[in-house]
Amino acid sequence: MSAVTDSLLRLAAGGLHLAGLSAPISLAAGYARTAPTFPILSYHRVNRDGDPFFPALPTEVFERHMAFVARAYLVLPVEELVDRMRRGALPRNALAITFDDGYRDNLTHAAPILARHGLPATVFVVTGAIGSGEPLWFDRLALAFKQSRAAAWTAPWGETVALESVAQRLAALAKTLTQFKRVTNAERRRRVDEVMAGLGVADERPLKNLMLSWDDVHALMGLGVTIGAHTVNHPILSQLDAEEVRAEVEGSWSAIRTSCGRPPRAFAYPNGGPKDYSEAVIARVRETGFTCAVTTRFGVNTAATPPYELRRGGPWEHHLPTFALKLAGYRLTEA
After folding, report:
1. Does the predicted TM-score (pTM) go above 0.85?
2. Which residues 6+ apart lie within 8 Å of 173 measured at CB?
């Protein structure tokens, strides 16, 4: 979207919102198509840190999002919406809210807002990080590029990149993340360790309380949050052999069942794009006992959407009127 188009959309959305039309438009969009549709909002972190190396939706923005969603939509857990989808009983203005990975600010910042507005949500946790004190591999890389004192760095693929500004460090981090998503689990662990050493960052204490503990997970459940699985170690499942896929999928299911007293019903594919999972992975998820799975493929869901390939995404606009208008518009697009 061009800057001009974006400005015009923002202006139009602001006018509609000022006229009190955002919620009615959202309701009307739910009836504009022959078949009911439902979007699934996807979040990760919610806090006030403003740290570009660990991006998060500001708490006050999330508060505005949820206040509007509570007025304009019928919010149900993704698992329940899939149950209704199978029965042909989808509500017209339904929506689901999800979080990926299992960051502690889901409890400290997001959950109180959800509870205040009476909104259910599903948090997909990486079970190997919950309670272990071990940060996710991409957060270790983020810390390395943030804290390194190096002015330049030679990447494993041979490129030397400057690290003199925040922008340069963020660009180097983004490229490294892309490169490392393409390698095996074992190779990725080795390379992350090498990057940490090469950038001279050994103190990982800033990451100590980044993730939820199992006690935190229980607290979320007490607030009405559903717990889903996001694998054990957050690998790209399509890159694993069958036994590794089984360990990641069944391992996360078992860990949640053991620690929470009930098995998870929903699964989230790490990274979640079309190339990040396969028919074999879907089969393993289904056979393990999950009733649905979410991707990061853009779109809304209908009764025709495969329950193990649910569409999910934004909008994530900070400007509430634009968020509201885009969310209504998504319901008019093809699923």
Report:
1. yes
2. 53, 141, 142, 145
